Amino acid sequence: MEFVHFNYFMKPVVIIGAGMAGLQAASQLHLNQIPFLLVDAQNQVGGRIQSENIKGFTLDFGFQVLQTNYPEVQRSLDLSALDLVAFESGAYLWNADSWLAFVNPLKQPGSLLDVLSAGIMSVKDALLLARLWFITQKDVDPLGANESTQHFLNRWGFSLKFQAHFLRPFFGGIFLSAGLTPLASLFRYYMKQFLEGSAAMPAAGMGAIPVQLAASLPADSIRLGMQVTEVSAHQVNLADGTSVDAERVILATDASAAAKLLGVSLEKGAFWGTKTLYFQAPAQVERKQMLHLVPESRVLHYAYLNHVQPTYAPEGKDLISVTTLDVSMQSADVLAELAPFVGPSIQKWAFLKEYLLPEALPVVGVFDELKQKAAEAGIVLAGDFTGFPSLQSAMHVGRAAAESCLKA
Ligand SMILES: Cc1cc2nc3c(=O)[nH]c(=O)nc-3n(C[C@H](O)[C@H](O)[C@H](O)COP(=O)(O)OP(=O)(O)OC[C@H]3O[C@@H](n4cnc5c(N)ncnc54)[C@H](O)[C@@H]3O)c2cc1C
Questions:
Q1: pLDDT above 90 coverage of the chain, percent
Q2: Which of 120, 207, 206, 212 lies closest to 160 in space, CA to CA?
Q3: Ligand 1 within 6 A of 207 CB?
Q4: Is the model's pTM score more than 0.85?
Q5: Is 338 in the same domain as 323?
Q6: Is the CB of 42 within 6 Å of ligand 1?
Q7: Which of 24, 45, 48 to mutate for ligand 1's pocket (most ligand atoms within 8 Å of CB)?
C-alpha cells in the first residue's frame, strides 16, 4: 500500500466528512494553524446541506432553513455574504375551507386574535404559549428533558385542535417525527429559535452555507470524491488504495458511515426519514411567505419558496416545496392530498424533482455504543448524531472536536 506523507515534521489531523461538522472542525484547525486534511466521499462539500440548479430553480436537497439565531451560525458564518431572506415568522393554518395567517405573536400580537376567534387555538393554548415563551427566555438545554414532546404537550394541556393544526405539522416538520417523540427540551429549544430568530434561505440555496466555510480553507487541504475505507487512531485508508498518516483522526461522517467504519451495528429506527418534493407553477401575484401547515395529512407542509427568496425560481414561475414523512408518497399522491387545500390552481403544478432522505436526522440518544467504540479506538467523533440534529449542533461538535486536537 502506498503511503501519502503530508509533511515530514507534522502529520495532519485527518477529518473524514465535509459536512458542517467536518468543515467547522477544519476551520478551527486552520485558524490555529494546525495542518489538516479534509476528506469526503462526495464530489462536493456540504453532506446533508447541498443545493442544485434544475431548469433555473434552486433545489435544496430536502427542505431546510438557516436559523440565524444559532450561536455557531452567528459566530462562524458571514451572513451578509449569504444574501439571506427570512420566512415571515409564523405559518398559515387551515381553517375549515381557507388559510389563516398565524404570525408570531411577539411580532404581530393581533394575529393571535384571528386564530382565537377561528377556534383553532383556545384561550388556554394562548396562555400556555405565553408561559412557554416565558420559560424559554432562559437558556434551554436541548438535551435536558426526559419526556417526549408529545407527552409534554399533553401534560401541559394544549388542545387537540391546536396540536393538529399547528404544533404537530410545524414541529413534526422540524423533528421529522409524526408522533413528536423527540425530547420536550429540544421542542423548547427549537421554539426559542423560531420565536427569537429568523428562518432564512441564502440567495444561492442552502448549499451556499458549507461552500462559504470551505472557501476559507486552503484548497489543497480538501480532498473530495475520496471514500475512506478504514480508520484507526493514526491512519486513514482511502478507496484509491492510498493511506494517510494522521496526528489525530476526526470522524465527522453521518452516523451510518461512522458505524460502518467502526464496525458497530446501529439499532433499527436510529434515524428520522423524510421526502421533499418540488413542483413548479406559474407565478402567483399574492406573496405567501410562511409555511402552509396541512392538518392531519400525510403532507406536513408546503411553501412557495421563491415568495421568500426570489432567487429560488426563474421569472414568472413559483417553486413549491412539499414535505412529507411518508417516504412512499409519489408526486400524484401529493397532488391528490393537497387538492382540497390548494384549490383549482394545483392543476398547474408540475413536478420537478424529489429528494428521498430515509436517514435525514439521527435519533437522539441511540449512539452510545458508537461513541464508546470511537473513544476506545482513540478516534475523535463529530457529526450531529453526537449532539442533536441541527446546523448548530453539527458546527458545535465540529468545533469541540478540533479543540480536543489542539489540547492533545
Ligand atoms: C431534510 C433535512 C432537513 C433539515 N432541516 C434542518 C433545519 O431546518 N435546520 C437545521 O439546523 N438543521 C436541519 N437539518 C439537519 C442538518 O442538515 C444536519 O444536522 C447537518 O447538516 C449535519 O451535518 P454533519 O456534518 O453532522 O453530517 P453530514 O452533513 O451528513 O456530513 C457527513 C459527510 O461525511 C461524508 N462521508 C460519509 N462517509 C464517508 C466516508 N466513508 N469517507 C469520506 N466521507 C464520508 C458524507 O459524504 C458527508 O458529506 C436538516 C437535515 C435534513 C436532511
A1: 88
A2: 120
A3: no
A4: yes
A5: yes
A6: yes
A7: 48
